[in-house]
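Below is a filled-in request sheet from our internal design queue. Each sheet records the structural input a requester submitted and the sequence that came back. We keep these sheets so that new team members can see what a complete request looks like end to end.

REQUESTER: design group, bay 2
PRIORITY: normal
MODE: inverse folding
CHAIN LENGTH: 130
BACKBONE (tokenized):
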């Protein structure tokens, strides 16, 4: 749990303790025990409403997390294809540079093969056909 989560949890716990002490004090100082009983019942009802609200929010958050996990998984599949495309295109650039410096057409033709392979992987990153 994060530090902010701990602070929130601690604040909530301290609030509940303070309310409990107030209720106990009301019960001890009040001659009329009925008003203390009513206050306890109201506080219990309030807590039950909060628990229901948090349970609903927890389910909503869980659904949203599942959607985000699916998006993440899809992006990971695409990223592998794009990574391969980058590797092959960088090899193409390297070989083309060497071919230009050495003025050797066979090396340049060889680099075109890597370039085509890089473009295939690039297209596969979008279309996922391989």
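RETURNED SEQUENCE:
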């Amino acid at each position: 749990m994060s530090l902010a989560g701990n602070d929130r949890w601690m604040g909530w716990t301290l609030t509940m303790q303070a309310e409990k002490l107030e209720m106990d004090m009301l019960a001890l100082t009040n001659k009329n025990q009925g008003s203390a009983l009513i206050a306890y019942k109201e506080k219990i009802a309030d807590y039950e409403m909060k628990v229901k609200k948090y349970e609903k929010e927890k389910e909503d958050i869980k659904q949203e997390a599942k959607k985000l996990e699916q998006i993440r998984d899809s992006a990971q599949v695409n990223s592998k294809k794009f990574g391969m495309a980058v590797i092959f295109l960088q090899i193409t650039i390297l070989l083309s540079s060497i071919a230009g410096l050495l003025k050797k057409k066979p090396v340049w033709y060889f680099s075109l093969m890597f370039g085509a392979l890089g473009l295939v992987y690039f297209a596969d990153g979008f279309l996922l056909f391989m």
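SHEET NOTES:
- The CA atoms of residues 11 and 102 lie 72 Å apart.
- The chain has one domain: 31-127.
FILED BY: M.R.
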